[in-house]
Amino acid sequence: MTEPHGPATEAVDVSRETTGYGSADVSRETPTGGAHVSRETEFDTPIAREAAQAVHVLNVRQENWPKPQQTRVLTVANQKGGVGKTTTTVNLAAALALHGLRVLVIDLDPQGNASTALGIDHTVGSPSIYDVILGGRTLADVASTSDTTDNLLCVPATLDLAGADIELTSQVAREYRLQRAVAAFLDQEPSPADGGVDYILIDCPPSLGLLTLNALVAAREMLIPIQCEYYALEGLAQLLNTVELVKSHLNPKLAVTTVLLTMYDSRTRLADQVADEVRAHFGKLVLEPVIPRNVRVSEAPGFGQTVITYDPGSRGAIGYLQAAREIAERAVASGADAEETQQ
Ligand SMILES: Nc1ncnc2c1ncn2[C@@H]1O[C@H](COP(=O)(O)OP(=O)(O)O)[C@@H](O)[C@H]1O
Ligand SMILES: [Mg+2]
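# magnesium ion complex -> structure
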């Protein structure tokens, strides 16, 4: 972290130069490559060089990232649709999990896109977050292990959840359902130092309804993905207002700790302008790495994968790896995770 208010172009350059993942500049946007390109074994072409890099990235267990002292619970929220909430949740989760951290993803969007990206069954009727919020089951009961790594667990969402906002309306403690489930789960878990879950990431639906409210009440931290596009800042005031309401009435411990710029297109001035504006407003809450717009990122869910495993040498994967590392290192550096425990 050097200059949080600096122009986004600088930020991107800095992030590219200072990581162990090397340069991410070579274009990989070939339509046929897929995951296999990264696993070529020739070393005298650009693709092969990237393949070597990809193998290095996949072989990530050689570098373990620091564990938080207590489980960090982050809600990924922004009521705008298509800003990269789900993509951010699953890719950060995979990146953290592949670096020795235990991660639980809670899919709270009836569309179940996070479940899809993590390759977890979410057909209607299968055990899901719906059964936790409205059926009294435990998170541990309905969590499945992702194929990516044993360190990555997911509580899927099914379309059953689509009615939850309405069903919750008449329930007792309707805003606290997820918080209670998370607290009960953590009660049963050892601390991170003893092998318990290090991170819980909650993927929200694109609304500020009761599901998102449950996520904000359940978490200590909020991560806001902001798309580097024209209307990116629209609705942010409403989002921050909701956060303030939640803090004053439902969960005083909630804090916006992280902002991530997504779908950054270095060819447009607009992306830079949006990035500048976001950095001017949120200061050092904004992660230094920026996630580039990269077709590999959008292809990965079609294969039930995150881009971290689908094409680990791609610019998108590298962006998310850098962002995840900064998230892991920041908390430890600031001691933010050493405060009293989640209720
Ligand atoms: N960095 C990126 N590059 C290219 N496409 C992306 C990127 N991030 C997200 N996408 C695509 O944009 C769409 C919206 O992203 P998504 O994560 O589903 O947003 P949200 O969960 O906020 O609705 C998806 O099709 C996703 O694959
Ligand atoms: Mg989503």
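# post-check
The chain has two domains: 1-39, 66-336.
The CA atoms of residues 20 and 322 lie 9 Å apart.
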